[in-house]
Amino acid sequence: MSMEIFFDIHSNLPREGPGNNDSTRKAFSYVKNIPGDARILDVGCGPGMQTMELAKLSDGPITAVDTHQPFLDELARRAAEAGVSHRITPVNASMFALPFEPLSFDVIWSEGAIYIMGFGEGLRAWRPLLKSGGYLAATELCWLRDERPDEVERFWAEAYPSMKTVEQNLRIIAEAGYTLQEHFVLPDSAWWDDYYEPMRERISQLQDRYKNDRDALATLKEASREVELYRKYSSYYGYVFYVMQKTD
Ligand SMILES: C[S@@+](CC[C@H](N)C(=O)[O-])C[C@H]1O[C@@H](n2cnc3c(N)ncnc32)[C@H](O)[C@@H]1O
């Protein structure tokens, strides 16, 4: 897929993966006994919808990391508009090599991004950055049923071959040195309202703009296929929010 068409699809959307503010708030409610001015790290923040919600839920500094500068610029714009620029520091860095000292954060947050490293790999790599008793909250695409129709199984076997079941991820959490606090499946609305619906609208505008470009049209078709697949098979897979505490 050309990067140009990828970013045509993925620019100026409210968010860049399934999620919503209700789910961010719900997950944060399971984070207990952290200081009022807790230091939070948001990994793979994108344009920062969840970062802005975290700023409402807490009083301390938030470091938001991504590798795509336009997303960080958009987050900086949103933070300025809300008058919270002094609390949010966008940092252009990779989740594979986070440039922070050990024991720097009370909470590590990551919505729709840990898959880039792999769930277990991310949990293990980021653990040293957490203070003792710190929390990690992350969403991850998971199988919700053991038996899956071929069509959906095949799509995700190609798009995300290391996708696990919830039970497998619970084991990975314990093995990576965390204690699960809570987990829940993101509701359908978290896929549609701020992500797939705006993306569908964008795709149909682009289909018009690229009507003479076969490669671009093929990419757009693939993107709409993912959306339609979710419409058909949403009971078989979903995004799960896992909230866990570093085990000492
Ligand atoms: C599916 S989006 C989720 C963004 C945001 N958390 C949200 O839910 O709207 C994944 C994000 O990870 C970022 N990303 C990709 N590779 C990365 C890396 N190596 N380190 C940090 N962020 C990365 C992308 O630029 C993108 O913003």
From TrEMBL:
The keyword Iron does not apply. Pfam families: Methyltransf_25 (PF13649). Gene3D superfamilies: Vaccinia Virus protein VP39. InterPro entries: Erg6_SMT_methyltransf, Methyltransf_25, SAM-dependent_MTases_sf. It comes from the Bacteria. Keywords: Methyltransferase, Transferase. The keyword Thylakoid does not apply. Residues 40-134 form the Methyltransferase domain. CDD domains: AdoMet_MTases. GO terms for biological process: methylation; sterol biosynthetic process. One of its GO terms (molecular function) is sterol 24-C-methyltransferase activity. This is Type 11 methyltransferase.
